[in-house]
Design goal:
- With about 170 residues, the chain is an alpha+beta fold.
- It has a single domain, classed as SMI1/KNR4-like (3-Layer(aba) Sandwich), CATH 3.40.1580.10.
- It is built from six helices and seven strands.
- The strands form two sheets. Strands 3-4-5-6-7 form a five-stranded antiparallel sheet. The protein has a two-stranded antiparallel sheet with strand order 1-2.
- Helix 1 crosses helix 4 and helix 1 packs parallel to helix 6.
Length: about 170
Amino acid sequence: MINSAELLWRNIITKGTRSNEHFKDQLCLQPGASDEDFQLIETTMDITIPKEMKEFYKIYNGQEWKIGGECFARNLTLSPIRKIIDDWLFLQEEFEPDDLEPEIDREIKPYLWNPRWIPIADNGAGDYLCLDTDPSDVGRIGQVLYFWHDWGQRSVEAQSFFEFLQICLEEDDN
């Protein structure tokens, strides 16, 4: 029986292959993440990885970025665990933990950067797709948000990683 993560990967690859027969190869997918990989990220970031992220990453541990490579969703490259940690460390150095952002969805704590956000994908221009492991009282653990490097606006894109991926799958390719 196929699980939700496997089905999402299958659907992502099927959708991409409709417009590019070499889509899967050009994703440059990495072998699935191990329990040690998950332990490393949880220890380094002092978080608990949401279940959906673990399920998804067990199949493929992100992508190796290459010129001419494809994005797994929208204009985003899925980061391998090691890159997630590197990006998180970079963002930790760039932002003070008490930098507040007043214009933010109420489901998100009002920080410009929250060290409990997991930057799982990026667009190559300093913007990240993050999973929130520290939402506000009305938010949900694992909710998805964009971190824009040059714009403070933070908003919930989806209630979960799998919901976000389903939204992307339903979008037109045009």
